[in-house]
Specification:
heterodimer, A: two-stranded antiparallel ribbon, two-stranded antiparallel sheet, 16 helices, 4 strands, B: alpha/beta, Rossmann fold, 4 domains, six-stranded mixed beta sheet
Chain lengths: 410, 513
């Protein structure tokens, strides 16, 4: 740009920092990412607290496996819910949808003799159909999602009762193993530790470390800002220790690696990738952040909205299978309050109420915070009513923390 | 006579930034006092100190109001003393009536029960004082921005205002409403109400201010007596604002004009809700490669509506007419298709229709053409950062990195991100709607240079602007619009402000079809 005028701008701040020497101070970095670390720290604090309060019972190997199996449904639903909320919507129907699809799944198996694996596929397909139904009203007719899914909540609960009656039982062992079983000990044992579980743990750690290092190297190679090395290394070491410890506990548990852990982990990886690295994910954030601006940037907002609900339906289908398998039967009253658990997990995990901000990993942490609370309080024999009350308080506290933190940043 | 307000040695520090440094300002009783300065110079901060938004104790220095120290801890404190601030974004409740808004927080009531007779009667009296002839029970949402502004002033009067502060009061107003508002300020001055007005519009300041204080980089650099023997010119004010001589407000540019790229023919657009209303009426225009074409018009002339309807029907209903690109007829019905055909539209309203303020620079830069940096729907993060960083450097966007949220940038830098986005989309036709709105003088110059470079790169540029000097300064050819129709086309050499204004105010009956 020619600078031969009398209107020269004052010289730009020296150095024009963009990449070189790219490591801001550690404290500044942590300050900016307080929310993210705050929730992780909260989870650690809660785990330690209950570990003490329950005399070390919380982290019994079998409890860790049970924690994952009991909460698999929230983890799965929370992934879809984050996407829905980031886009500026809400889905109140997922609990009813879980009951409805779970019921159909059980009926297919026990009354129509459909092989259970095929029934699982059909259930997930039904989830897509349910999602398309709701997505149609939200995206193409323009009814607020709150209304559409409130309607869906009643509609699918009603249908669940119509089809299921009260209970459909008598499901095959293979199906029930999805949520109750573990991977076979194919590699034998190392002392009292399950070999396959150890292998999975090692692969997970290697994969995580490899991916993180590669991403960081790519940033540095292109002369771009990366987080300070201390923060990077610290985070990585903590993550490795956490995975290592969980692996150890699971390897020590009665079954080894729960089947459902593999499903959940796969979904978390897949959807983290979708939200961070794909055009679809980017469009969701863009629409949640500023809808008219997204439209004027060429985002096909109707189609994206439709797909978000189709996706939520798909995950509700998966959650239905997992829930039915866990119970060993379909119950018309299943999935009660699941939508609220998923919404709470998303908000505790830092999703913004106004949309545009939220992470899959955050919602997973949110779901675990609630799961650990539940389990810890159960071990302590606290009445379930009190458990519910505590969860409510935690939800408010998490969002209050978020809001005051944001205000301070201004 | 003692001054009504004396601010001495005001220093306000934010973490890492000195927003105000030893600012001194004295306002005489019964004057209109203008405060000028570039964006980010500290004008708004100063007014927030004065009105108690930043409480006493959070800044250094002293405020003396009517001879008494003013130590305001809240806005209420300052209002009790008669200081009322009207912000640029009006603070009215849209579904409440005028009367309810005027007395919001200050209800005419007895023991908690509202007296509607009193409310409406007193509101009517206040409305008469500001010259607004609407019934007091009209809802705010049914009023235009100009009238809403008057309601704000009526509200201030209801609080027995002695010092009225207006932050960019005419930024969103058309010329007629602006003139009315300035008139009102004069009347209020005659009734003894002092006002402080923050404005970017130098001609207004020249017209209405008795005194002007100029703030630059957080310091009060000069106080000009506007009613002195020697008239103060606009250039004089600009010089003080930017702290350097202003030989040219517009960069020199020698156009190299090529083939016709965009042709809009017999373009007619109707209102999206009221389909019987014609918003753009049989408009025809062309833009050639390397050419900067202006589109002048008053508010409501249909300029933005024309541009947005061309941009993939993003505005309007019942659109008819023919688009040609590079001489070939095309049909473009979606924004996505418009972008794919090489049309870009940078909105006049960055905050609401342009940027995602919570996202960072890189994501805002890449938003309109993710396919450039993705494959099979997967985004290449490194490519994205590299591309965004290239545009940041090219545009000289002042930000530490492309990871900075756009919401934290100044108006000029936000505009550069908007331009980065549309350049990233690699268009042939760029429609820039009010590209320098709300931007300070220095940044405007940079934007003009960018526009020139785009034209030099062979792009067809259509600039919509309400500032006639700007159009005259940068365009090679100018169309004027009035009431949805194109009423004139003038080459740069023959264009004058008066000439354009005649076309811009041409009534329907008077124009040849």
């Amino acid at each position: 740009m020619s600078a031969s005028t009398t209107l020269d701008q004052p010289p730009p701040p020296a150095a024009e920092p963009s990449g070189t020497g790219n490591s801001g101070s550690l404290t500044a970095y942590l300050g900016q990412n307080l929310r993210q670390y705050g929730m992780m720290a909260a989870l650690v604090v809660i785990v330690v607290l209950f570990q003490i309060l329950t005399d070390g019972k919380l982290l019994y190997p079998n409890n860790i496996a049970a924690l994952i199996q009991q909460n698999a449904y929230v983890l799965i639903l929370a992934i879809g819910m984050v996407m829905v909320i980031v886009a500026g919507h809400i889905d109140l129907s997922v609990g009813s949808v879980v009951a409805f699809i779970g019921g159909i799944c059980a009926l297919l198996i026990s009354e129509h003799g459909v092989p259970w694996l095929l029934a699982v596929v059909l259930s997930i397909g039904l989830g897509l159909v349910v999602g398309a139904w709701q997505g149609f009203w939200v995206a193409y007719v323009g009814i607020p999602a709150f209304i559409v899914t409130l309607g869906g909540m009643l509609l699918f609960r009603g249908l669940a009762i119509v089809f299921v009656g009260t209970t459909v039982a008598g499901l095959p062992a293979g199906f029930n193993d999805i949520s109750n079983g573990s991977l076979p000990s194919a590699l034998g044992f190392l002392a009292d530790l399950d070999g396959l579980t150890l292998l999975i743990g090692v692969v997970a750690i290697a994969g995580l470390a490899g991916a993180q290092l590669r991403a960081r190297r790519a940033l540095l190679r292109n002369d771009l800002r990366a987080e300070p090395f201390a923060a990077f290394a610290g985070k990585l070491v903590l993550a490795v220790l956490a995975i290592g410890y969980i692996t150890y506990l699971l390897a020590k548990s009665a079954g080894g690696t729960p089947v459902v852990l593999i499903i959940v982990a796969g979904l978390v990886l897949l959807y983290t990738f979708v939200m961070n690295n794909t055009v679809f994910g980017r469009h969701i954030y863009a629409m949640g952040g500023n809808l008219p601006a997204a439209m004027l940037s060429g985002v096909k907002t109707k189609r994206v909205n439709f797909m978000i609900f189709v996706n939520m339906g798909l995950l509700a289908g998966v959650a239905a299978v997992v829930t039915t398998s866990r119970a060993g039967a379909a119950v018309a009253a299943a999935g009660q309050n699941f939508e609220l658990d998923a919404i709470a997990a998303a908000f505790i995990g830092g999703t913004a109420v106004s949309g545009g901000i939220g992470k899959v990993t955050g919602a997973i942490i949110g779901a675990f915070i609630m799961g650990v609370l539940n389990m810890g309080l159960s071990i302590m024999n606290v009445d379930p009513s009190w458990q519910m009350a505590v969860k409510g308080l935690v939800l408010i506290a998490a969002v209050a923390f978020d809001i005051t933190n944001k205000r301070r940043a201004k | 006579m003692s001054p009504i307000l004396d601010m001495r040695g005001i220093t306000k520090t934010f973490p890492g930034v000195k927003a105000l440094q030893d600012v001194t300002m004295t306002v005489a009783r019964g004057e209109v006092h203008a405060v000028c300065g570039e964006n980010g110079a500290g004008k708004s901060t100063l007014m927030k100190v004065l009105s108690g938004v930043y409480p006493h104790g959070s800044y250094a220095g002293e405020i003396v109001f009517e001879g008494q120290p003013g130590r305001f801890r809240t806005i209420r404190d300052s209002e009790e003393r008669g200081i009322v601030i009207i912000h640029q974004e009006l603070a009215l409740s849209p579904y409440l009536s005028i009367a309810e808004n005027i007395f919001l927080g200050n209800e005419r009531s007895r023991r908690g029960v509202i007296s509607w007779t009193e409310t409406n009667k007193q509101a009517a009296e206040l409305l008469a004082r500001v010259g607004l002839a609407e019934p007091p029970d009209t809802r705010i949402i049914d009023l235009g921005v100009g009238k809403q502004q008057l309601v704000e002033i009526a509200k201030a009067l209801s609080k027995r205002v002695k010092l009225l502060i207006l932050d960019e009061p005419t930024a969103a107003l058309n010329d007629e409403d602006s003139a009315h508002l300035l008139d009102l300020l004069r009347q209020l001055r005659d009734q003894g109400i002092t006002s402080i007005i923050i404005s970017h519009k130098l001609n207004e300041i020249a017209a209405i201010a008795d005194t002007t204080t100029i703030i630059r980089d957080g310091r009060s650099v000069e106080t000009l007596d506007m009613r002195g023997a020697e008239p103060v010119s606009e250039d004089r004010i600009i010089r003080a604002m930017v702290g350097r001589d202003l030989a040219h407000r517009f960069p020199e540019h020698e156009p190299r004009i090529g083939e016709e790229i965009l042709r809009v023919e017999n373009w007619t657009v109707h209102h999206p809700i009221d389909r019987t209303r014609t918003v753009v009426d049989d408009a025809t225009l062309t833009v050639r490669a390397g050419e900067i074409v202006g589109l002048a018009g008053l508010m409501g002339a249909g300029r933005t509506e024309l541009a947005m309807s061309v941009f993939g029907h993003s505005y309007g209903s019942g659109i008819s007419g023919q688009l040609h690109l590079h001489g070939k007829p095309v049909t473009i019905r979606t924004v996505d298709a418009a972008i794919a055909h090489g049309i870009a539209y940078a909105t006049e309203d960055r905050k609401h229709y342009g940027l995602n303020l919570i996202e960072d620079i890189k994501r805002n830069t890449s938003a309109a053409k993710l396919r450039r940096i993705s494959r099979f729907g997967v985004i290449d993060a490194a490519k994205e950062i590299t591309a965004a960083d290239r545009y940041r450097r090219e545009m000289k966007t002042k930000a530490e990195s492309v990871d900075v949220p756009v919401g934290k940038l100044s108006g000029g830098n936000q505009q550069k991100v908007v331009l980065s986005r549309w350049l990233f989309a690699e268009p042939d036709v760029l429609i820039l709607d009010e590209p320098t709105r709300g931007i300070d003088v220095g940044a405007k110059y940079e934007i003009y240079e960018i526009i020139n470079r785009l034209a030099d790169a062979g792009k067809a540029v259509l600039v919509i602007s309400s500032e006639l000097p700007e159009l005259l300064g940068i365009c090679d050819r100018i169309y004027a619009m009035s009431q949805g129709r194109i009423t004139g086309e003038i080459p740069r050499a023959q264009a004058t402000q008066e000439g354009l204004m005649r076309f811009m105010t041409m009534e329907k009956s008077g124009a040849a079809r």
